[in-house]
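Researcher: We're reviewing a set of sequences before deciding which ones to prioritize for further study. For each one, I'd like a predicted 3D structure that I can look through quickly. This is Blue (type 1) copper domain-containing protein. If possible, include the structure in token form so it fits the rest of the review sheet.
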Amino acid sequence: MKKVVAILVLLVGFAFTANAQKAKTISLEQTKGKFIQQSLTLSEGAYVFEISNNNVGHDVGFVLAPKGKTDEKHHIKNAYVTSLVKNNSKSSSKKVTLTKGEYVYFCPLNPTPQYTLTVE
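Model: Here's the predicted structure for Blue (type 1) copper domain-containing protein, in token form for your review sheet.
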């Protein structure tokens, strides 16, 4: 019985460790009408997106969505910045867990083209 309890404790510990996965920060910079980084390739995992507004002249945001599904209902809401990014400042998203596939990122407020983010 002690072995069963010990195994259960270990399994629960591993589950908590996996859920507490540390997010990597991805920094993206916007200028007038574009992102400086025009494509990204990432590994599966947890990320926080830090968005810089480099003298755009007004507030900007950030949208991440599956490629081909860019209407608002498909946006990855946790990827939205937690507050609009004021001119010459930064803001970050919440933690986003990405799985293999293709995504696009863009800013409808700037506005920018849609750029490709590939998760391998």
